[in-house]
Input
Amino acid sequence: MSVTFFPEDHDEDGPDLAVSNANAATLLRLLGLRPEQHADAPDAVGPLGIVLHDELAGIAPAEDILGRVLTATALLDVATDDANGRPMVRDGNVIDCGRRPGYLAERLQQLAEVAAWARDHGAAVVWA
Output
């Protein structure tokens, strides 16, 4: 399964970013758009009325996403293990393929490109 970030009313010329569900969840947490997982936690409403829930789908203004990407990029090495990556882990039938060093920084840069294009074309950023 994967999640794609794209401009609302996406056309073939607009950029997009497709990542695995696990990496999408990490990116959304870095952006402050996904709460930590708590089975009994109710949905919360964040800035600009964005609903923060446990699903990997949503929509936000492009300017908001750009600001969040800039903040996440500035804090990335402090807040994550991106500089070292993450090794592959196998637990029974479940495999986490890990992440190479620098992956999150690259994906944040690509997400900034999606958001900038959306902003320039009067669109919001959607992820689903």
User: Anything to note?
Assistant: The first strand starts at residue 2 and ends at 7. Strands lie at 2-7, 17-20, 44-45, 51-52, 58-61, 89-91, 94-96, 124-127. The two ends are 11 Å apart (CA to CA).
